[in-house]
Amino acid sequence: MSSILTERSGKVGIIRLNRPKALNALSLALVEELVEALRGFDKDSDVGAIILTGSDTVFCAGADIKEQKELSFVQAYSADYLKNLNDGLSSIHKPVIGVINGYALGGGCELAMMCDILYAGDKAKFGQPEIKLGTIPGAGGTQRLIRAIGKSKAMHMILTGEMIDASEAEVAGLVAKVLPADQVLGFSIERAQKIAGFSFPVVAMAKEAVNEAEELNLQTGLHFERRLYHASFALKDHEEGFGAFLGKRDPQWINQ
Ligand code: HXC
């Protein structure tokens, strides 16, 4: 059985983690399938945005503890599936929207943080419980959480292993919006359709520029942003967008 399910809704590619008996834990096979599905949607010229979600009750309970328990240092080091997961997500040009219902724990919280936008159901819970297993976060928890919610709250989660709920995650800035659990996927698909309705290359440029802000100092980041802003002048969609505004009509994007 496949560890993920994929479907298309208009211009949106939807990926669901699908290991219900293991609470969607990140097995080596799941990570491979996930990265392949993301790349497939990224290459598909009819898809403008991607949704990554779990089930109605769990996003992902983290690394597959049963599988990880059997790995020696050399096996874990050589498989390097954490790097494959991180590189897989960060190489996607199209926006990836994480839709979180239920638990997002350990690698599940880290996977959520690799997404570009997070929308959460009101029963969502986020945590980095690795400390309780005798290890530490291994897929960005110690790095991305501090950028998302600040040092004290990140330390609180990582050192105590305690979870935060959806409203705390929203106040802290980890998620963009919290909605009733049964509405969050529909809301997210609508937002994804909206994003996919804009010019694909412009959306990709905006995503790239925002993500660079986490890597660069301010002057270099501003320079990078200006270069991409000016590059957008070369697009036919730039001419179309400005022309449509001045002509008081809706733009017709051609993704060029
Ligand atoms: C493998 C898992 C799992 C996991 C749950 N299961 N989490 N299997 N890997 N991460 C399995 C359980 O063994 C059980 O299988 C079934 O899913 C249901 O789980 P229960 O514990 O019975 O459910 P519940 O009481 O509702 O508790 C839910 C839970 C708890 C709070 C999410 O399962 C839990 O604490 N899970 C572990 C979360 C965790 O520590 N994550 C960090 C992993 S390390 P059986 O066969 O008994 O029915 C990590 C490192 C990051 O992520 C590195 C980067 C990827």
Automatic annotation (TrEMBL):
- Entry EC no(s): 4.2.1.17
User: What protein family does this chain belong to?
Assistant: Belongs to the enoyl-CoA hydratase/isomerase family.
List, alphabetically, the Pfam families matched.
Answer: ECH_1
One GO BP annotation is: fatty acid beta-oxidation
Q: List the protein's name.
A: Probable enoyl-CoA hydratase, mitochondrial
The molecular function terms in GO held by this entry are:
enoyl-CoA hydratase activity
What's a GO cellular component annotated to this UniProt protein? mitochondrion
Keywords, alphabetical = Fatty acid metabolism, Lipid metabolism, Lyase
Q: Which residues cross the membrane?
A: none
SUPFAM superfamilies, alphabetized: ClpP/crotonase (SSF52096)
What InterPro entries does this protein's entry cite?
ClpP/crotonase-like_dom_sf, Enoyl-CoA_hyd/isom_CS, Enoyl-CoA_hydra/iso, Enoyl-CoA_hydra_C
* Lineage, broadest ranks: Eukaryota, Fungi, Dikarya, Basidiomycota, Agaricomycotina
